[in-house]
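Morning. Coffee machine broken again, so started the prediction first thing and wrote up yesterday's gels while waiting. Chain of 382 residues, entered below exactly as on the submission form.
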Amino acid sequence: MQRISNKVFKAEKMTSKTLKRKFLTALILAVSFIGFAKEPAKEGEEGKEKFDPKEMILHHVKDAYGMHIATFNADKENELHLTIPLPVIVYTDKGLTTFSSSAFHHDYHGHEIVERNGQRFVNVHEKVYVLDPGALEVAYDEEGHPINAHRPKFDISITRNVLMMWVSISVLFLIFLTAARRYNKSDNYVPSGVASFVEPLIVFVRDEIARPMIGEHKYKRYMPYLLTIFFFIWINNIFGLIPILNGANLSGNIAFTFTLAVLTFIITTVSGNKNYWKHIFWMPGVPVPMKIFLMPIEIIGMFVKPISLMIRLFANITAGHVIILALMSLIFVFKTVAIAPVSVAFSLFITVIEVIVTAIQAYIFTILSALYFGMATEEEHH
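Came back before lunch.
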């Protein structure tokens, strides 16, 4: 055992040295390109609209009414956008209106006006607005918000994130149904194929998350939920890293993380036993004045926990996408290909980290949910 430990220590030491060398090499490469980053503007470019990295990043991070794949012949007369149109479904004063998102011209502002059901619709920063009666075009205030248009009563459109949610659900069904068939066809339920990949993850969630956090006798009832959120968050995080999906990242949507956090809160609240509620409203073992002082803190803590779950997942996934897009935008900000190796190298480095983060964030959300369930079901100790 001592020899094995020494070998492991040496291997980790060598790996650490290798990573340090690679990082220093990348840093030296970045510094070496800084001197060549700035170039004078070429003739004929003064009149062009300046590249806005903030607008580009926000455009890619937030949800959209269509799945944009690629752009051909950019900034030319024959510019072509390859997109997957999605249905726009809105409910206004005149009832339900549906049309394809392809009706909107593809640009960052969405100034194309679509007439349907006696109304005019416009897409402004990936939000559908209804123009006021008689308005022929959109008027904006100083901050770029429309002043002669309003949002519909309900917007239940099939957006990019909704589409990817359906895709991820379909992929999960395919994976687990295939794994189940493998088990049924095998002798003595020996995993093979997809099942050999899924089983260690399920065992990990059971033995490393559910059992320690909830307890040996109560963890089974929570396993379906824990497995669902673990795989669901993980696979959506992975989809968010695929370039062709154009940043369609469900975990980077605050509504998605809010829904998962609410589900965890509901299960925790419903599962709470007498001992759990006693520790919230009337903390045992402390003086009465302290009980009165602790009660509002514990009540606030009930809501802070799901809020932290929501923000942690949303912020970590969104931050990774923003960093990668910001690094890539340096090429267009400096207007030189000299910065390209630096941007691509660091973007690749962050992307590799993001691959690890996709699993870590799914693990953190799952283990914290299990921890809250364990706190809610813990029996009184004597």
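The chain has two domains: 66-158, 161-377. Going to sketch it on the whiteboard this afternoon.
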